[in-house]
Amino acid sequence: MKILFLSSEVAPFAKTGGLGDVGAALPRALAARGHDVRVVMPCYRRVLEGNHRLRLLIPPMTLAVGPARLSFDTLEATLPGSDVPVYLVRCPRLYDRPNVYTQDGDEHLRFALLNWAGLRIAQQLGFAPDILHANDWQTGLAPLMAKTVFAWDRLFERTRSVLTIHNIGHQGTFPASAVHEVGLGITAESFHQEELARGRMSFMLTGLLYANAITTVSPTYAREIQTPEHGVGLDGYLRARRDVLFGILNGIDEDEWNPAKDRHLPHPFSADDPSGKAKNKEALLRELGLPQRPGVPLLGIVSRLAWQKGFDLCFEALPALFMQRDVQLVVLGSGEPKYEAFFGELARRLPNRVRFLNRFSEPLAHLIEAASDLFLMPSRYEPCGLNQMYSLVYGTPPIVHRTGGLADTVRRWNPMTGQGNGFVFDHFDARGLKWALGAAVDAYRQRRGWNRLRDNGMRSRFGWSERVVEYEDLYRKLCPPTA
Ligand code: ADP
Ligand code: GLC
After folding, report:
1. Are 334 and 359 contacting, i.e. CB atoms less than 8 angstroms apart?
2. What is the model's pLDDT at position 483?
3. Does the Cβ of 385 fall within 6 Å of ligand 1?
4. Distance 353 CA to ligand 1 centre (A)
């Protein structure tokens, strides 16, 4: 099938979180199944500054987008490990900025252009997609565009659209005037009228209304977002479309996240020979300047420091843990000031036990997953979560809140039966987290059980090759082969 895949993040070109991983791994997995996938993303400043091989594919075009005239040209790169083309929309006026996402007044325009450009590039190349696959609010306008302003073009006659929700907490909501500014004034009647009457428009809602199918990144999250508690105002619309709403668990990219051949690890290891794991821990502790304390568990955190991730529970649970137990902690992450301040302060107060690495570092993320004994991810909500899957296959049992994709991938360890792969608390409160931390540290002391627990995780099958067929089946249902 021919698939036009739009994403605001695609690793290694631009990544702020899991969308970047999925934006690369899913197209790669689809291509490996023989599909013709083309990926479109913005050419941010960091793409140009990265060491990527880029070539000019399409010379500048100018689009009238509402009152703005936007010029962009299209560069082409190849997704590493595949021959999937990545089309980079280069429009310095919108994308030559330090960050991928901004609070700037033209954020709606920045991503509206991605939608326009995706479809215009397909036209320029004569690429007739069977499937237009949009991801999150940033590409939520494309399904509507394909059905309205591009409908005259027979190229899109067969095109069916899919919108994948990676996070319903971000909806791309702007003042109603944005409908004109993004160049869709002529189809203003297609937007949700009550929303417009309330003075706003939303990219995500528009996508939910017009995509032929909606997916989200785990079965549990697919159910959760249909409830008022987790739907962030969109649950009613999702319930109305539940017959075309599917939860498909993310996979992990086994070329990137495989402890046996991870280029970021000084000591590769595997379920069959996990001995390298302890050496990675030694190496990390040395690098961090923390004392080597055999028998003392090292907890790891790698995360965006955002409200979603539930670190508020740590304010109470971690100081209590350090009072009661002998543990070490390493945190890699950046984000909201209150979490940065908390982990910074903890590291200052406990210089022999805690390190806070306040930055984004792909190599360190891999090393921490491999070197830690336990991985902490107390998310308030989690559409899928990749880090808990990485930690499982790296032999680092995760401690998680039972929500979204965490509920679908982590099963509570039962030392009696030897079943389970991690530590799960049911209620999002500090008591729950404290209980799970205590259970985890206790389990760590039971050597034999621990090895079994770790082995259960390391032998899990989370690869994309198992998941990609679910997308393929969905695409086929939407766009059956012509006779
Ligand atoms: P989310 O997409 O909500 O941030 P996921 O667990 O799906 O959560 O994906 C997070 C991704 O971002 C993982 O690949 C993780 O390793 C990476 N990541 C998060 N913070 C950092 C950081 N500070 N440095 C390096 N990688 C990070
Ligand atoms: C979002 C979610 C995360 C998910 C990722 C990739 O960032 O927060 O749970 O794993 O997207 O789908």
Report:
1. yes
2. 65
3. yes
4. 23
Instruction: Judge residue 156's burial from the number of C-beta atoms within 10 Å of its C-beta, 0-12 exposed, 13-18 middle, 19 or more buried.
Output: buried
Q: What letter represents residue 312's amino acid?
A: D
Give buried/exposed letters for 279-298 (b at 16+ CB in 10 A, else e): bbbebbbeebebeeeeeebb
The architecture in CATH of the region 2-251+465-478 reads 3-Layer(aba) Sandwich (3.40)
Q: Which ligand 1 atom sits nearest the alpha carbon of residue 19?
A: 2
Q: What angle do CA 167, 133, 307 make, to 5 degrees?
A: 10
Say which residue the tokens 């428009």 belong to.
201
Q: What is the pLDDT of residues 156-177, one digit of tens each?
A: 999 999 999 999 999 999 999 9
**Residue-wise pLDDT tens digits, 237-253:** 999 999 999 999 999 99
For ligand 2, atom 11, name the residue with the nearest CA.
Answer: 166
CATH of region 275-461, choose from 3.10.110.10, 2.60.40.1180, 3.40.50.2000, 3.40.50.1360:
3.40.50.2000
Structure tokens at 263: 């280029």
Q: Which of 151, 169, 166, 126 is nearest to 210 (CA)?
A: 151
User: Do residues 435 and 399 lie in contact, with contact meaning Cβ atoms separated by under 8 Å?
Assistant: no
Closest-lying ligand 2 atom to the alpha carbon of residue 383: 9
Classify residue 140 by burial, with Cβ atoms within 10 Å: 0-12, 13-18, 19+: buried
